[in-house]
Amino acid sequence: METSITNKSAWARFVDKNIFIQFFDVTLRGCAQVMFQNNPLTGLLFFIAIFTGAFLEKIPEVAFGCLLGTVIATLTAYISKLDIDSLRSGLYGYNGCLVGVALPAFLENTPFTWLSVILGSIVSVIATISLMDFLRSWKVSALTAPFVLVSWTILLASYSFLGIKGVSLPEPTLPHQYIEPIGHHPSIDLVVVVFRGVSEVFLLNSVIVGVIFTIGLAVSSIWAAIFAILGSLLAFSIASLLKADIASIHAGLYSFSAVLTAIALGSTFNKPSWRGLIYAIIGIIFTVFVQGALDVVLKPFGIPTLTMPFVLASWLFLIPNQDIMPNHRR
Amino acid sequence: METSITNKSAWARFVDKNIFIQFFDVTLRGCAQVMFQNNPLTGLLFFIAIFTGAFLEKIPEVAFGCLLGTVIATLTAYISKLDIDSLRSGLYGYNGCLVGVALPAFLENTPFTWLSVILGSIVSVIATISLMDFLRSWKVSALTAPFVLVSWTILLASYSFLGIKGVSLPEPTLPHQYIEPIGHHPSIDLVVVVFRGVSEVFLLNSVIVGVIFTIGLAVSSIWAAIFAILGSLLAFSIASLLKADIASIHAGLYSFSAVLTAIALGSTFNKPSWRGLIYAIIGIIFTVFVQGALDVVLKPFGIPTLTMPFVLASWLFLIPNQDIMPNHRR
Amino acid sequence: METSITNKSAWARFVDKNIFIQFFDVTLRGCAQVMFQNNPLTGLLFFIAIFTGAFLEKIPEVAFGCLLGTVIATLTAYISKLDIDSLRSGLYGYNGCLVGVALPAFLENTPFTWLSVILGSIVSVIATISLMDFLRSWKVSALTAPFVLVSWTILLASYSFLGIKGVSLPEPTLPHQYIEPIGHHPSIDLVVVVFRGVSEVFLLNSVIVGVIFTIGLAVSSIWAAIFAILGSLLAFSIASLLKADIASIHAGLYSFSAVLTAIALGSTFNKPSWRGLIYAIIGIIFTVFVQGALDVVLKPFGIPTLTMPFVLASWLFLIPNQDIMPNHRR
User: Which residues pair with B166 in a beta bridge?
Assistant: First the structure.
């Protein structure tokens, strides 16, 4: 994730003057950092996409949760007086942003769910510092692990606590071999599938949302946008070749983690190069296997993988970066 | 955990003179270190509480196991010539102490169970060194993780080995949403619930045991005693608000990990302060969520959480200590 | 694992002259490193054993997979220009070697399974670098963890992907207490059981294979061969005493991880000594408990433990090496 504040523009000078504008700017960057961009305009486009998608899918609580989570996490970082460079880049906000998406998406709309969003967003900041500290020696980022760990904890706890009852969590079952349905496969619109995959990064499932996300990426980094599309397309192809469940493929469920792996390996932590491209492609393909594996591991527990396949695959591929990709790091 | 030997009193000089008295002293401190106290009197009171509770509940094997585990672990540390300061403070004994409580509590009373207690206590020392080494860079303690990992291994293995058959392990099941029972809730005596929570740190379930534990804490550190009660009370309140299973709440099952988190965050690793108090409260609340989550994760495996919720929550909150609580560490 | 190239013999000089002979040499060493030997003759004997066993058991795909995995992993290391000393010692090859054994052993014989072997072998090299980097501070080796993690991922994913369907994976179930069968136990030939245990390191189940493996070890290190037999024998005894499932004991399923722990603790990472012997014996015994525990943990997921019990137990016992075994490391 980029930590330098880009071009001291009129906006940057404006932001420096007013703490409220600064907070607004950091909140937007927090949302943008979900896809590794340190850019308030990207964040604004992301929020627009999320609100559009959430209202289209009649789950407005997801959009409000997303905003609330980002604000609470950012506020926590300010109050705790954390490292100002990371703070200003939105690096303490993106996990809260996703906690705010995930909890209202799976839990009943009760006051305790909203208190859990607030607690989860605060703890996501503490988990971010913990993981940053933990991972420092290996020079890898916490990625979205704080979000996943905090959300998993609260979603699992929902089976113990009636006050935050799960409403759309998958039912706990033992894994079993998927059986291919008889009959014709539905015809596939590749464009639809690719952008749905991008959209699912925020647990949304619509083409328009994916398109706005991609535009948001392009505003900040054209390579990020290209790799997002490449990741979604490649993951779709691999999952189809391996004969995964058609409905899951079409819903983009094999793509969203691969999209993040693609942006991370392809553009954020490596400069684009042929060597890097091949490495990223192997990483994206392996992310699809990790997605398939983690789906199975979590079946008995009745919780979704969230973006953990991306986190695990990317850590695996980022730690050797300095061995495999010499001289690429600042 | 405090590593300095407190006040060179008559007792301390007496201990220095005789290796058997020293061993006795270190064994007592080992028991006291379960709740982070480096104090032989605390350890003596803890042993009194454990023997009282175990005999009251007609499970004397738990008390004898506790004593055996502490002695074996302490002996292992002496024979292995480990770091003398840590050894004298009881830091190699407390995990064996808990192994000795947990195995007889859940396994059939057979010779192999007792051999497992001995093996487990020895391995708990090895696991303590491993984890201390592993965690050194992040300046956090192993806490009770060695106890939990060793005990989980042996309890899980009891499903494979008839020689150490489980007798009171929870039956492996898939998680399902808890359903609130119809009818009136039993009336609650707050004092009973709070002290039962403290008592459950050693898997015991009686008020008098909790009271003696708290006195034992107060003898060594009044803040430790205060935070233990605060932790138990707060965990009870949060679990009640979140509508957890009433029977589990009353048995103190949501409190014992929170008690340890409270002592650790509130008094052992931070000096009491307003900032620290708020941080500890967030940590205690999150421990209740981790307890609820881990209960669900372990359901399919038929083993109890032991104190792992405390370990996980405390690691999460202790690693950022130097960022969140500047200048508090020696 | 030994990293020094042994005696600059005629063979060593021959190898230095020709890149193809060198590749052949490194491939053999890769296979030998599964049991920590840096010796091409050991590797050759291992391959002979594997082909013999696989054809005897009518699973030739396991032997070809083994060869393919080692070659692909070695090739990946050459292409990625990894550390030449580790490469030449076969340290990037042994995980691919085992991936090539495990995947064809459990998955349907389809083109996608073979593509998964290739992908898995490539990723095993990346995982090796990752884990080496991760574990550097604690001076412990990655052992066979890269193999296990990559194979688990692909085996778990086989439940999601029809293209790599599992055919001999254990069915996912909840754990339950094993019930001892009524009737006479089959008579046991100790020699058969011990060598089967050694054979199961490569998932094979025949005495002759175990014998050739042991000869292969002896060619490189007589202590390694002795500890392999000791480990297998001790694990058999402990599992019998603890009353594990007779069929599993006889198939060597409690022994193969213990064999590796025995070689690792007894001869590879410690010089043989009385102190080391006692430490190794405790480690071997605990490996049997870890095997029993991990069998239970993996039941709901329908995958085998592979050599993970060895990895976990050995990490636990190797990290304290410098505390428990002072001055033994180079």
Answer: B107
**Which chain C residues touch A285 with a CB distance below 8 Å?**
119
Which DSSP state fits C6? P
Contact C319 B129 (CB under 8 A): yes
At residue B1, the pLDDT reads: 43
Residue of A218, A178, A212 lying closest to A196 (CA atoms)? A212
**Placement of tokens 């492609």 in the chain:** A281
Is B242 near chain A, with CB under 8 Å?
Answer: yes
- The pTM (predicted TM-score) of the whole model is 0.94
Q: Is the ipTM beyond the 0.90 threshold?
A: yes
B286: helix, coil or strand? helix
Of how many residues is chain B composed? 330
Could you write out the three-class secondary structure of chain A? CCCCCCCCCHHHHHHHHCHHHHHHHHHHHHHHHHHCCCCHHHHHHHHHHHHHHHHHCCCHHHHHHHHHHHHHHHHHHHHCCCCHHHHHCCCCCHHHHHHHHHHHHHECCCHHHHHHHHHHHHHHHHHHHHHHHHHHHHCCCCCCHHHHHHHHHHHHHCCCCHHHCECCCCCCCCCCCCCCCCCCCCCCCHHHHHHHHHHHHHCCCCHHHHHHHHHHHHHHCHHHHHHHHHHHHHHHHHHHHCCCCHHHHHCCCCCHHHHHHHHHHHHHCCCCCHHHHHHHHHHHHHHHHHHHHHHHHHHHHCCCCCCHHHHHHHHHHHCCHHHHCCCCCC
Q: What whole-number distance in Å separates Cα of residue C112 and Cα of residue C120?
A: 12
Q: What is the pLDDT of residues C207-253, one digit of tens each?
A: 999 999 999 999 999 999 999 999 999 999 999 999 999 999 999 99
Which DSSP helix (H) or strand (E) runs through B74? helix B60-79
B168: its two tokens: 């009171």
* Domains, chain C, with CATH or none: 7-169 (1.10.3430.10), 174-330 (1.10.3430.10)
Q: Find, in chain A, the residue whose alpha carbon is nearest to that of C124.
A: A316
Q: Given A138, A242, A285, which is nearest C134 (Cβ)? A: A138
DSSP one-letter code for C131 = H
The alpha helices in A33-138, defined as continuous H runs, are: 40-56, 60-79, 84-88, 94-106, 111-135
Q: What is chain A's mean pLDDT, rounded? A: 92
Nearest to C177 among B137, B152, B166 (CB): B166
Task: Find, in chain C, the residue whose alpha carbon is nearest to that of B135.
Answer: C138
Structure tokens of C222? 């007589």
Q: What is the DSSP letter of C181?
A: P
Point out the residue among B137, B154, B155 whose CB comes nearest to the CB of C137: B137
CA distance C173 to B124: 30
For residue C96, the one-letter residue type is: G
Tokens for B96, please give them: 């064996």
Closest among B325, B290, B261 to A123, alpha carbons compared: B290
- Which is nearest to A122 in space by CA: A161, A64, A79? A79
C243/B162 Cβ within 8 A: yes
φ/ψ of A252, rounded to 5, equals 85, 10
Nearest CA in chain A to B275: A80
DSSP-assigned letter for residue C267 = I
* Helix or strand holding residue C9 (H, E): none
Give A262 to chain B, closest Cα distance, Å: 29
Nearest to B241 among A127, A159, A163 (CB): A163
Q: Tell me what pLDDT residue C328 has.
A: 40
Query: How far, in Å, CA of B312 to CA of B157, rounded?
Result: 23
- Helix, strand or coil for residue C205? coil
CB of C181 within 8 Å of a chain B CB? The answer is no
- Residue A282's closest CA among A301, A265, A300? A265
SS3 C272: coil
The predicted-structure confidence for B89-142, as pLDDT tens digits, reads as follows 999 999 999 999 999 999 999 999 999 999 999 999 999 999 999 998 888 999
> Token pair 């009194």 is at which residue?
B48
